[in-house]
Automatic annotation (TrEMBL):
Residue span, Endonuclease/exonuclease/phosphatase domain: 16-228
Name of the protein in question: Endonuclease/exonuclease/phosphatase family protein
Pfam families linked to this entry: Exo_endo_phos
Organism: Keguizhuia sedimenti
GO molecular function: endonuclease activity
Keyword Metal-binding: no
Keywords assigned by UniProt, alphabetized: Endonuclease, Hydrolase, Nuclease
Superkingdom of the source species: Bacteria
Length: 237
């Protein structure tokens, strides 16, 4: 009997975005192990994380903990520090992250924001993932989206924009610009996690036909681990 060739077809790829709220749950307890538990429930191939504690001043690096527990590749996108504690975005992936870049989305005197732009190699099939967490002000979000859309200048690989966009008004300019660039996508509510009412977390892909299905991961653990529920999308080849 000959050797079986390994299955190197990654499709469909499962993508998720998850605002982990600094690993502080709806019960106000700091419990990174619950975030790890939710990620293990999801079993996504690639996850964008927001509000990630990145260590400093004797404070745990939650991203390192997640990487150790999951065995995924991980990159951070530092955005700001408070009292010596570092926070930012992150991308974790079961596939190698071959390159990553930080995009500064800071706006005036508001809390610094950013995006993490990562190239991922899915068994020879490249994906570009841009993970972000946008601001709370309308004008702030509009300027941040203008900056983000300027980086979508490649047709060399599928491009995925995902994260907490802090926008729920479907007729607002911010979402109109994104829809005009990516086409409309399903937007189920993800916030607050106990009784989700607002679709703050979004996943877009270009080309649009690669997006097969979008759903929210709502379980007893995910409803308490963070104030956001994870949003999951399935991408086909």
């Amino acid at each position: 009997m000959g050797l079986t060739e390994p299955d190197l077809n990654p499709w469909p790829v499962t993508i998720a975005t998850y605002n982990i709220h600094s690993a502080v749950g709806t019960d106000r307890k700091f419990a990174p192990e619950r975030i790890v538990g939710v990620l293990q429930e999801i079993q996504a191939d690639i996850v964008a994380l927001q509000e990630v504690p990145l260590g400093g001043s004797h404070f745990p690096n939650v991203l390192e903990m997640i990487q150790q527990k999951t065995g995924y590749f991980a990159v951070e996108g530092f955005t700001f520090a408070v009292s010596g504690r570092r926070y930012g975005n992150a991308v974790i992936s079961r596939y190698p992250i071959v390159e990553h870049r930080s995009i500064d989305l800071s706006f005036g005197s508001r809390e610094p924001r950013g995006a993490l732009d990562a190239d991922i190699n899915c068994h020879g099939h490249p994906l570009r993932v841009i993970a972000t967490h946008l601001g709370l002000g309308i004008g702030e979000r509009q300027e941040q989206i203008r900056k983000l859309l300027q980086v979508f200048d490649t047709d060399q690989m599928p491009v995925i924009l995902l994260g907490d966009v802090n926008e729920w008004f479907i007729w607002g300019r911010s979402l109109k610009w994104l829809v005009s660039h990516f086409e409309a996508v399903p937007a189920p509510a993800t916030f607050p996690s106990r009784w989700p009412l607002l679709p703050l977390d979004r996943i877009w892909i270009r080309p649009r036909h690669r997006l097969v299905h979008v759903n929210v991961h709502a379980t007893p653990l995910s409803r308490v681990a963070s104030d956001h529920l994870p949003l999951i999308a399935h991408i086909d080849g």
